[in-house]
Every structure is written in structure tokens, then in C-alpha cells.
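User: C-alpha cells for this one?
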Amino acid sequence: MKKIMVVDDDPDDLQSIKQMLENMDDEYNVTCASSGVRCLKLLENNEIPDLILLDIMMPEMSGWETLKILQENSSWRDIPVVFITARTDDFAEEAGNFLAMDYIEKPFDIEDFKKRIDEVLEKNDS
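Assistant:
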């Protein structure tokens, strides 16, 4: 079973991504966090996923800020992070690809989305 945490401030995106992932693969166990702060609270409670799908544009704490905190914590820094975002500018894409394992723009193709998630999970396993 692969644990995936989806972090997004849009409740519709959270639910649709959760349902899509769980319907695509019964090996996925998906947890949702509605903010970077909530993500960190779940991690502090030892709910450690195999992968974090992280939105960039969120109020209170952006995906960039959340990633920085993850990378500064020795218990969390090895959790692979994939940015999922509606941001399509070159800077965000280049920074996202450099800082995270992958950068996926919304809306995304479902098969491509699963393929890229599986690639990150496989890379992290080896």
C-alpha cells in the first residue's frame, strides 16, 4: 500500500484527486490536507506518506513555504514531493522541477498523472 498525501486548499480538487487516485489503483491510500499547516500537523502526528502532492498557490502557507519546512526537517526531507498547480509560468515550472521530484500542471491527463506518480514512487523505492 502506497500512502499519498494531497495538499490543496480547494476542497473540490482534494476530493477529485483522492477519488481519481483511489479508483485508478487500489494500492493507493490517499490522505487529504487542506493547507500546508494541516500537512505539517499530520506529519507531526506521524502520518508519514510515501509521496506528497503539493499545491503551490495556497493562502496562509504556500507550497513553496511548505516544501522549505519539509526540507529543513530531517524526518520529512526524504519524502518525495510533486507540485500540482494551476500556475503555468516558466519560473514556477523551472523552480518546481528543480525543487521537487516533478511538477504537474492542472488540469492534467489522468493516465499521465498516474504514470508520473508511479515513476516518483518507484524512484524513491530504489
